[in-house]
Specification:
With about 260 residues, this protein is of the alpha+beta class. It has helices at about 10-20, 30-35, 90-100, 105-110, 115-130, 160-165, 210-215, 230-240; strands at about 50-55, 65, 75, 140-150, 185-190, 195-200, 200-205, 225, 245. It has one domain (about 1-260). The structure holds zinc ion. Zinc ion binds near residues 46 and 47.
Length: about 260
């Protein structure tokens, strides 16, 4: 059983949105990436040229493009977490769904038709990307901030399991209900230009410190922060002099974070 089943329903929905973006459910990943990459027309990710044409498909089925300015070919997943693998985007999409559902590595591997070690590598690629993909961005104007949680899955990672903790007895209770140390907190924020910040901050509940780790010094002084009712954001915005609007029971504030 995935630890994620212990997440309150609202948190689970949030995590799902963050991993795949609310729009993606209706679309496939390739369409989604295409829309994001070429939102302002077809631009080459290598030279910035605008004479980009379709150029056949890779064996995995991925659409290839060629840039007439620099002569290079690229696929839509260039510079994303999905690039450089031989698996098609449909497999990645399935894997993201597995992750959002909190399936174990073995279960995910089985459902996606990949090996256990590929599943392991992908999980870390994705978690890494959540942290690194947004470094350097800073946010301004209307900024929506929220946090989500991912289960710390020791299950299926035999090394971590044996080193860091005694493994739980089968069917044993998780120490506490709710957002215990079994989860990592991932504060995230996005502004209206689509710039986003997110990073794995800590184990357990969201705190001012966790928010500070991710958002501290990265939000324009004049920005207006929109968050849920969490006290961590009140303390953060007071300390940093931001205007704060808290939406009671705020749900679905952060979406489309997933531009890794
Ligand atoms: Zn080019």
């Amino acid at each position: 059983m995935g630890l994620i089943c212990q997440l309150p329903r609202a948190e689970r929905a949030k995590l799902q949105r963050m991993l795949i973006g609310s729009q993606v459910n209706a679309l496939d990943l390739e369409t989604y990436l295409t829309q994001r990459r070429f939102a302002d027309g077809r631009v080459c990710p290598i030279c910035g040229g605008t004479h980009v044409l379709r150029n056949g498909r890779r064996r995995s089925g991925a659409q290839k493009f060629i840039c007439k300015d620099c002569g290079k070919t690229f696929s839509i997943s260039k510079n994303t977490v999905f690039s450089g693998t031989r698996k098609g985007l449909a497999v990645w999409m399935e894997y993201l769904n597995c992750m959002a559902e909190g399936l174990s590595l073995d279960k995910s591997a089985e459902r996606c038709g990949i090996t256990h070690s590929t599943a392991f590598a992908w999980r870390h690629k994705i978690l890494d990307a959540i942290g690194k993909g947004t470094e350097g961005d800073s946010l301004a104007g209307i900024v929506e901030a929220d946090e989500t949680f991912l289960p710390v899955s020791y299950k299926g990672d035999r090394r971590a399991e044996s080193k860091e903790r005694p493994s739980r007895k089968r069917g044993g209770e998780i120490h506490r209900r709710g957002l215990s140390d079994e989860f990592v907190c991932i504060p995230c924020a996005i502004d209206r230009r689509g710039n986003a910040l997110s990073k794995v901050a800590k184990l357990g509940k969201c705190s001012t410190q966790a928010v500070d780790v991710v958002l501290g010094g990265r939000i324009d002084q004049q920005a207006t922060l929109y968050t849920d009712g969490d006290a961590a954001y009140r303390r953060f915005s007071r300390a940093n002099g931001h205007t704060l609007v808290q939406i009671k029971g705020g749900r679905g504030t952060v979406k489309g974070i997933y531009h890794i």
